[in-house]
Amino acid sequence: MSGAIDPNIKLAIEAQTRAFVTELDKRFAAQEAKWESRVSALEAAMVAPSPEAVEALKNEIDGALGSQLAGLEAFVTERLLQVEAAALTQVAALESAAAAFEAWRPYIESVVDGVRSEVVNMNKALDREMKTSILGEFGSASAHPPGGAPADGPHGHRVEFSHRETGPGRMSSQHHLPHNGVYETS
C-alpha cells in the first residue's frame, strides 16, 4: 500500500515517541547526576589517588554504565516492539477494509451500469411516446391540414393581426395600441 499515513496511526506513533523521549530524558538526567557525583568524588580522590582506589572507581563506573546501557537497550527494544505491533495491527485493519471495498466495487459498478442502461431505455421509450399520442402524431399548428386546405387564422377568415383598436369609437380618429397593450405615461 502506498499513500499518506492514517492520521490515527500517526497520532499513536507520535504519542509513543513522546513517551519514549520523556523516559530517555529522565534516564539521561539520572545518569548525568550519577556522573557528576562520581566526577566530584574522583576529583576529591585525585589529591592523593591510590591505584586501588582508581581501579575500584573504574570498576564501579564500568559496572554501573554497563547495567544502565543494558536496561536502556531493553527498554528501547520493548517500546519499539510495541510500536511495531500497534502499527502492524492498524495496517492490517486498513488493508482488510481496502480489500472489502475492492471486493464490493465490481458489484456497485455493475449496478450503476444497469441503472444507466435502464435510464437510456426509459429515455428511448419516452421519446417514442412523445412522438405519438391518442390523436396521432404531433405536428406543427401552422402546417396544412390533411385535407389540403390552408389553415384559417385565429379569426376564422385568414385575417392578419392588427394592432389597431377594434372596438367602437370615432370614425375619424384611429388609435394605435402599443404592442404590449399598455400606454406609456410619462
Mean pLDDT: 78
Content of β-strand: under 5%
The side-by-side strand order for the widest beta sheet comes to: 1-2
* Major sheet: 2 strands, antiparallel
Along the chain, the helix and strand elements come as HHEE
* Cα-to-Cα separation, first versus last residue: 77 Å
Basic shape: elongated
Which range best describes the helical content: under 10%, 10-25%, 25-40%, 40-55%, 55-70% or over 70%? 55-70%
What structural class do helix, strand and pairing data support? mainly alpha
The radius of gyration is 49 Å
DSSP strand tally = 2
Number of helices: 2
Low-confidence stretches: none
Topology overview:
Blueprint: H1 7-45, H2 51-131, E1 132-133, E2 136-137
Antiparallel strand pairs: 1-2
Helix pairs in contact: 1-2
In words, what does this structure look like?
By secondary structure, the chain is an all-alpha fold. It has a domain of about 90 residues. Helix content is about 65%, strand content about 0%. It contains 2 helices and 2 strands, in the order ααββ. The chain has a two-stranded antiparallel sheet with strand order 1-2. A hairpin with a 2-residue loop joins β1 and β2. It is elongated, with a radius of gyration of 49 Å.
Short description:
The chain is mainly alpha-helical and 186 residues long. The chain has helices at 7-45, 51-131; strands at residues 132-133, 136-137.
